[in-house]
Design a protein that fits this description.
It comes from Diabrotica balteata. The protein is an all-alpha fold. Helices cover 77% and strands 0% of the residues. Helix 9 packs across helix 10. The chain starts with a helix and ends with a helix.
Length: 480
C-alpha cells in the first residue's frame, strides 16, 4: 500500500515541480506552463516534436521534458501554446502589417508614376498645389516672426530708396547693386545644382564652365583681361584701346574667382536640406518610409552593412567609404569629401545629420571645401583645357583620327574662329556651315539640359504634394 501511495503522489508532485522549474519567477512562462497543463497527451507530443524532444512516455514525463526547454523557447511557446487564446490577435496583427506594406507600396507606385510624360495634367496640378502649399507655409512662418518681417521690410525699403534716389552716391550704389545681383545669380545656380539635380555638374556644365572657358578664350585672343564693363559680364568684348598685356594662368583665375566662389557657396547651401532632414528624423524618430527616399536608402544601407556586408555593390561600398570618413575623421573628413567633385556627397549630409554632427562643423567644412578648394580645382581644369596652345595641339591631333578626323577638324576650327571673331567689336562675322552646325548642336544641348532641369523640378514638387496628401489621409485615418 505505501508503494501505491507513493506512485499516486509522485505524478502530482512531478506536475507541480514541472510548473515551478519551467516558470521560475517569470509571469510569461507561468502563463504558458498553465496552458500546457490543459493539453492532452497527443498535443503534448506535438509540442515535444516541435522542440526536438522525445515523444515517448507518460503525460507527466512529457510535461517534465517540456518544462526543461521552456526558458529558451519562450517566444516559440507563445506562438504555439497560446494559439487558442491569442492566435486570432496574432493573425490579425500580421494581416494589418501586410495591408500596411501593400498600402505603402501602392502609394509609392502612384507617386513614382506622377511624371509629366505619364500623367501630365495631374502632375502640373500637383506641382501648382505644392507651390501654393510651400508659399503658404513659409509665408505664415515669416509673418509669425515679427523680427524677420521687420528686417526684410526695412531692407527692401532702404534698398529701393538708395537705388532710385539721385546724388553723388548713385554710381557707388548702382555698382554695388549690380554686383549683388550678379553674385545672387551664381549663388542661385549653385543652390539649384545641389537641390534640383543632385550631382552639381549640370549647372557647372551649362553656366559656370562655359563662362570660365569664354573668359579664358577672350584673354588669349584680346591679350588683356580689362574687359569694359558694361557690357562685361553680360557680354565679353575686347578693349579697343590697343593695350596688350601678359596673360597668366593666375590672372585668369583671379578674373573668374567671384563667380566661381559664389557658385560654390550656393552648392554648399544646397547640401543643407539632407542634413536637416536626417537630423530631424534622428531626433524625432521619423520613419524613413514616410519621409525622404534618401533617408530610406540610408537606413537600408545601414542594415545591409551590418547583416550582408559581403553583398554590397561597388556604389554602396563607395557610399560606406564616404560615411566612414565623415563619421571617423569629422571636420577634416567632411572637408575632404567636399573638396573633390563627389556625386555621393549627399550621403555625407545625411550621415552628419543622422549622427548629430554640429551644424557649423558640417556647414563650415562644406563651405570651405566647395567654395574655395573644389572651385579652384575646377577652374584650373577648365582654364588648362581651353588654353589656346593646348586647343591648337588638340585640333592637330584630331586630324590623325582615322576616317572622321579631318571631317571633325573643319567644323571645330570654324566654331572656334567664329567665337573669337565675336570678341572683337564691329568685326566681320564670317562663319562657315561647320561652325553653325556645332553652335546649333551646343545650343540644342543646353536647351535639352534646361528642359530636363525644369521637368525634374516639376515632377519632384508633384510627388512631394502626393506624399503630403497621403500623409494627411493616413494621420486622419489613424485618429478615427
Amino acid at each position: 500500500m505505501p508503494v501505491k501511495k507513493n506512485r499516486k503522489v509522485r505524478p502530482a508532485f512531478s506536475t507541480q515541480n514541472t510548473k515551478q522549474t519551467s516558470t521560475g519567477n517569470n509571469p510569461k512562462n507561468l502563463k504558458i506552463s498553465d496552458e500546457l497543463l490543459y493539453l492532452n497527451k497527443e498535443q503534448l507530443k506535438i509540442e515535444c516534436r516541435k522542440r526536438g524532444q522525445r515523444t515517448t512516455g507518460t503525460k507527466n514525463e512529457l510535461l517534465q521534458r517540456l518544462g526543461k526547454t521552456m526558458a529558451g523557447h519562450g517566444k516559440k511557446k507563445d506562438a504555439t501554446g497560446n494559439h487558442h487564446m491569442n492566435g486570432g490577435s496574432t493573425t490579425q496583427a500580421k494581416n494589418k502589417k501586410h495591408i500596411d506594406i501593400q498600402k505603402k507600396e501602392k502609394e509609392k507606385n502612384e507617386r513614382e508614376s506622377l511624371v509629366l510624360w505619364r500623367k501630365p495634367l495631374r502632375t502640373v496640378e500637383y506641382f501648382i498645389r505644392e507651390c501654393i502649399e510651400l508659399a503658404t507655409i513659409y509665408g505664415k512662418k515669416i509673418l509669425a516672426s515679427k523680427v524677420i518681417l521687420g528686417v526684410i521690410s526695412l531692407s527692401v525699403l532702404l534698398l529701393y530708396i538708395l537705388v532710385n534716389s539721385k546724388g553723388p552716391h548713385q554710381a557707388l550704389v548702382q555698382g554695388a547693386y549690380k554686383k549683388l545681383l550678379w553674385c545672387s545669380y551664381w549663388v542661385g545656380l549653385g543652390i539649384l545644382s545641389s537641390v534640383g539635380l543632385g550631382t552639381g555638374l549640370h549647372t557647372f556644365l551649362l553656366y559656370l564652365g562655359p563662362h570660365i572657358a569664354q573668359v579664358t578664350l577672350a584673354a588669349y585672343e584680346c591679350g588683356s583681361l580689362d574687359f569694359p564693363e558694361p557690357p562685361y559680364p553680360d557680354e565679353i568684348v575686347c578693349p579697343t584701346d590697343g593695350k596688350v598685356g601678359v596673360i597668366s594662368f593666375l590672372s585668369i583665375m583671379s578674373k573668374v574667382r567671384l563667380e566661381a566662389m559664389c557658385w560654390g557657396a550656393g552648392t554648399a547651401l544646397g547640401e543643407l536640406p539632407p542634413y536637416f532632414m536626417a537630423r530631424a528624423a534622428r531626433l524625432s524618430g521619423i520613419d524613413p518610409d514616410d519621409e525622404d527616399e534618401d533617408l530610406k536608402a540610408f537606413e537600408e544601407l545601414e542594415k545591409k552593412k551590418k547583416n550582408h556586408r559581403n553583398e554590397l555593390t561597388l556604389v554602396e561600398k563607395g557610399k560606406l567609404f564616404v560615411e566612414e570618413i565623415v563619421q571617423k575623421v569629422g571636420f577634416l573628413g567632411i572637408l575632404a569629401c567636399a573638396s573633390i567633385p563627389n556625386p555621393l556627397f549627399d550621403l555625407a549630409g545625411i550621415t552628419c545629420g543622422h549622427f548629430l554632427v554640429p551644424f557649423w562643423t558640417f556647414f563650415g567644412a562644406t563651405l570651405i571645401g566647395k567654395a574655395i578648394i573644389k572651385m579652384h580645382l575646377q577652374k584650373m581644369f577648365v582654364i588648362i583645357a581651353f588654353n589656346e596652345t593646348l586647343i591648337d595641339t588638340a585640333l592637330d591631333w584630331l586630324k590623325l583620327v582615322p576616317v572622321i578626323g579631318e571631317k571633325l577638324q573643319v567644323p571645330f576650327k570654324a566654331f572656334l574662329n567664329g567665337q573669337k571673331q565675336k570678341l572683337h567689336k564691329n568685326a566681320p562675322q564670317a562663319t562657315t556651315d561647320g561652325g553653325n552646325i556645332l553652335g546649333s548642336i551646343f545650343e540644342k544641348f543646353v536647351i535639352a539640359m534646361v528642359l530636363y532641369f525644369v521637368i525634374s523640378i516639376v515632377n519632384s514638387f508633384a510627388q512631394s504634394y502626393h506624399k503630403r496628401i497621403n500623409k494627411k489621409k493616413n494621420t486622419k485615418a489613424s485618429k478615427d
